[in-house]
Amino acid sequence: MVTGSEAIVTWFVEFTRSNSHFRGMPQVFEFKQIEEVAPMKQIRIFLQLTALIFAIAAFGQGTKSAAAASVPRAQQSQPPPTVASTVDRQISIIEKQIVEAAEAMPEDKFNFSPESLNIPGADYRGVRTFALQVKHVAASNYFLWSGLTGDKLPEDFKGGNGPEDLKAKADIVKFLKDSFALGHKAAATLTTQNMLQTAEHSKSPRLYLATFAVAHAFNHYGQMVEYLRMNGIVPPASRAKSD
User: Fold this and answer.
1) Which of helix, strand or coil describes residue 68?
2) Residues 38-46: what's their mean pLDDT?
3) Is the CB of residue 132 less than 8 Å from the CB of residue 161?
4) Do 148 and 107 reside in the same domain of the chain?
5) Three-class SS of residue 27?
């Protein structure tokens, strides 16, 4: 005949085996012999075991809740986007693509223009060379973004193509990179309070100048891509990852 205490212990053992909260836990109790105990003691044992079960179950639920709660906290660790961070991200995207395209063109082809191909039916007379495309983007960046930062233009800054003495590929690429550094500085000045204010020495809002520079750079990036392909060079942004 199964005693009351034996039934309680048997139920507890089966409960712990079937409940996921107890799987993998070390065997805390060792039942070698079940002895008949008084009814009050049975009740006390039952209450103690029940309290233990609920305590462990609550611990398991608490662990799950903590894990679930950790996901939103991790997501909340990222600061909310601002007008400055949004524009800065746009600048970073075009900066990467256009700098890589400039670096991909060999030095001996840096002054290439489609005019030299004499393509029938195509009129490329007077178009910018690849080098001038890069210089024009950099110069425009300086013109537009300096209105937000108050920086002075580089010395010998003439026309829409920047300093005339920049001839070597390395110097032109540096000019391009420096112009994007100014762009990040300009983006950092933008707030919801000043983004629609008229920029210094301009009739346009600050946000317009900041984003128009990005749109303008993408325009010339498309032309640079064609120049690269005309020379049998796949633009870095279009290459397979293994290239």
Assistant:
1) helix
2) 49
3) yes
4) yes
5) coil
